[in-house]
Write the structure tokens for this entry.
Amino acid sequence: MTDFNSPSPNRCLLILLDGLGDRSYEELNFQTPLQAAHTPNLDQLAKTGANGLFHATFLGEALPSENAHFVMFGYDLSDFPGRGVFEALGENVQLAADDTALLSHFVSLDIAEDTFILKDGKPELTANEIASFSGAIAEYTAQKIQIEFIPTGGIRGILKLQHQTSPAITDTDPFFEEQPLIEPLPLEGYESHQPTVATAAALKEYLVWCHQQLINHPLNDVRRRQNRSLINGLVTQRAGQLKPILPFGQKNGIRGLSISSGPMYRGLASYVGLDFLEGHNSDNPEIDLKQRLAMAETVWNEYDFIHIHSKWPDKAAHTKKPGFKKQVIEALDKAVGSSLVPFVQDPNTLIVITADHSTPSGGPLVHSGEPVPVIFHGTGMRRDQVSSYDEINAASGSLGLMRGKEFMLTLLNAINRAKLRGIMQTPHDCPVWTTDYQPFRRP
Ligand SMILES: [Zn+2]
């Protein structure tokens, strides 16, 4: 068992810089934004830590944050419930076991030869318009499935489908403008699965009804007169349904907290059983990360694992300006320099710095499939020759390339929790030594 008096890590602070990994750009002298950024504090951690690359699944696979995080928290993607579930939980939408939750948002559609075409995927709506349009499509029943649209801010909402539904259906959002919408269809293998067939049919009927409701809405007459695009459709993505999973504490044998922000992370934390503290959001990446690190410091004695999330590198990359992403990274490095000191000085703390996926700040992709650089910094970690935190130097580090659940296993190992494989203290195969097993009592 862990000896808490010895100077070796027994807990982990994970700083997750969302979408940090990137590609090289001519305007940055053929470097990535992280390579080009001046990051003396991250470099110092790389120099005194172990370095490597990480991909949550397979090299080349472009992952959304929710899938990558789920794996990083020690879970198999076969247990992944779908992002719709996380966002629903994050918005306090209660789901029954046979409900399906989908992400949805208002769009402007064209119709060409009876096909819906996405004209504007991010239309601007006033608060009044959002309230009225949401009201017009709030409830519908088809195929004995009750459908509810729950607005969640801006043009977005959760679509909740109730009673014997299935999430095994295609999206309807084509993601790219001027492209036809996708018809809701059962996924491969579910073509004759009754709940799936009914869900796809009900969703199709509802979305056609939404178009009718919206096209005839008086506020669209106003928009037409103002020469603004019509809000005449709803598109859906990433259907999800609850799945039974072991809570984080039982799964990994450690008490965990997530300091992040937004409904997705709130819902993800609640789903996997991490405590949650909502981080502050401003227009300053340095202040935001500093504030989250300060929050972590105040509760550090209560946890074995804290996930601190910064969405900033991902957000910056989505502007498709490599130079802006570089600036954001430099700001985050400053926060690390000032606010990470107490953690760095604590011999019982392992600091892990990495990302969930790469987000290219150039080119057409949303996210991309390159691995991301990772630092494991703490007493006992194998120090390597890497002296700079970036995608290229990390590749020559002592951690090599980590994939999938190797991340959480490596983390648990580094905080001296790793149990010998094959030792079964609990009915589920917990990767760490635990005292939380059923004591053997004399009958
Ligand atoms: Zn992400």
